[in-house]
Amino acid sequence: MKALNDLNIFVETARQGSFSKAANSLDLTPAAVSAAIKRLEEQIHFPLFVRSTRSLRLTGDGTLFLQKTSAALNLIEEGLNEINCARGELAGQLYVSAPSDFGRNMLLEWIDEFIELHPRVMVKLDLSDSLTDMYSQPVDVAIRYGEPADSSLIAIPLCKSNERILCASPEYVAPHAPLREPSDLLQHNCLCYMLSGSLHNKWQLHRQGETESVLVSGNPTTNDGEVAHRQALKGKGVAYKSLMDISQDILSGRLVRVLPEWDGGVVPIYMMCTDRRAITPLIRTFQEFVQEKCCQQRQAVLAAIEQHCQLNHAELSHE
């Protein structure tokens, strides 16, 4: 299947924009990638890339060929998946894009479990807080927070009841002024992050139909949600995080919820696909697996938060 392999190498090289990066991704040498591209160009009789010492870009013909090749490879993989499912096993490659914090702290462990269950599945995980362009990148599914803004994509819910909460480490909470109302956040170092160049420092909190917005400040700020998470773990301030992202830390006690009567509202988690026809048996099985994991994790962390609140109330009643 050398011809099919060469097509896969071409698609990955176009995605990476570099022979060396594609080689690293595919566990090949740059020479092997270059040879595969040359072999493919000789078969189709036109150049796929414009090469220079500093850059690599697709030719006009290469761009069109990439679109058709990606679609064809997806159809081939879908056919193989259907055949393998009929035989009672999953196989194939799954390219997943996910937010950095959720990906590193939750999804990566779940993917390890998924691969143990389905050892013939190859998973590629791309972590970034930037929104992946699913039409220009060879991504099978993208995991995203919030209600989908792009109506052309297919959104499959993973955890519709996920919410944002305020949290900090016990080491930060102990010596600092207590948090009783949202306005108290103004006296604290609030760990903010930037997304698409915008600073997310307007924290909106809800309690039994009441809503308050607080314009917070803190140091440092970052364009990576996981950095704010790590700073909170180090006792540097208060974070405004997705419950799912910090669930392991809540369960272990590394972080505690502050202002527990207030929440940051629902921030659902969805799995996005470009087309309903692209939802292969492999994707559907992966979606159901992650959905179940999200449900189990949310139930566990909410029980831990409730237990922590009950202990705090009991301690206050004894004072």
Automatic annotation (TrEMBL):
BP terms from Gene Ontology: DNA-templated transcription
Keywords: DNA-binding, Transcription, Transcription regulation
Domain HTH lysR-type: from-to ranges: 1-59
CDD domains: PBP2_CrgA_like (cd08422)
Gene3D superfamilies in the cross-refs: 3.40.190.290, Winged helix-like DNA-binding domain superfamily/Winged helix DNA-binding domain
GO molecular function: DNA-binding transcription factor activity; sequence-specific DNA binding
Keyword Iron-sulfur set for record: no
Domain of life where this protein originates: Bacteria
Annotated family: Belongs to the LysR transcriptional regulatory family.
Protein name in the entry: LysR family transcriptional regulator
